[in-house]
Amino acid sequence: MAQGMRSLSVSDRIGMVKIYKLMKKEEFISQIAKLVSFETVTGNVAENSEALSYVESLISKDAEVKRIKNKDAEILIAGNSNIMTPDVGYMVHMDVVAGKPEQFKVSIKADKIFGRGTSDMKFSIPIGISLLNQLIATKSKITFSLAFVNKAKGVCQLVITAKGSPAHASRPWVGRNALDMLSTLSVELLKIYGKNNIKENWNTTMNTGQIQGGISINQVCPVAVMKVDFRYPETDSIEKITKTVSGIAAKISNNITIEKASTGLPTFTNTDLFVVKDFLKTMEKAYGKKIVVTHTYGASDARHFAKFNVPVLMMKPMGGEIHSETEWVSISSSLKFYDGLLEFIYGQN
Description:
There is one protein chain. With about 350 residues, the protein is α+β, with helices and mostly antiparallel strands. It has helices spanning about 10-15, 25-35, 45-60, 120, 125-135, 180-195, 240-250, 275-285, 330-345, and strands at about 65-70, 75-80, 90, 105-110, 110-115, 145, 150, 155-165, 205-215, 225-230, 255-265, 265-270, 295, 320, 330. It contains nine helices and 15 strands. The protein has two domains: about 10-150 and about 315-345, 3-Layer(aba) Sandwich (Aminopeptidase); about 155-265, Alpha-Beta Plaits (2-Layer Sandwich). The strands form five sheets. A four-stranded antiparallel beta sheet has the order 4-5-15-14.
């Protein structure tokens, strides 16, 4: 890594800081392999908790560590000081989408390490642990707690329930079919949002994830539920989307109710901010090439900072095939990412 910290001393930037222990390639591979072996599927509380215990075992004993349980989830927060209000926050998530048993065992081909969650986003955990341990060992005054793309779409998930009245299928005019109401609503919504689903764009998209209803084929359905997922840019809002859906639903029937399931604001960061420019400059040095700032279409945990106007950039090493059987992340790119982050953080002194 001619441009990385492994050959260019971080002291050039921060002034003779002792490097405690740079994470080695073998260490990164070993830790990510172990992390992938935990089947941390969302909802598997026991497995997620066990994985967090493994992570905690890797963190310096001098760190401040909190583990918090919230209903069926558990989170871990670790830092060198002021863990709830750090200078630098580093967010990761442990949960992954479901996969086949063989996907929870890593394989390595050339520079790529394959396995469930390698790219989304278990690669980041060994990096975050090493950054924290380094800061603790060098007694850095920078406070750090174990987020970075220019924009991410917000998420608005709605649960729409239609109530009709039952009747026999031979006499549908006697009842009111709840499924018909939702079908009509879906068609009308697709007239607005459907064109955005055809190709890549930066407009609000709509996905009908579930439609459930009916007891038997020969009965007019009395109750039906439709679950719709909207992903929207900073020019749209949860309120606008909900108002649109409610307005159309009201024209169809006054027996349609709408509830919010999961919502989140999109993120937007001013790339002219000094800290953003500094970050990009440092990362360009680590990678030896220009960093392109763009937007992304998925929702992100960083959305929780949006309402507080906290600057958020999201960046990751080279990887691909997220949520597929061939998900991978580049080993060398991950180590360059680590080098860049380490230099950037120390540069905040």
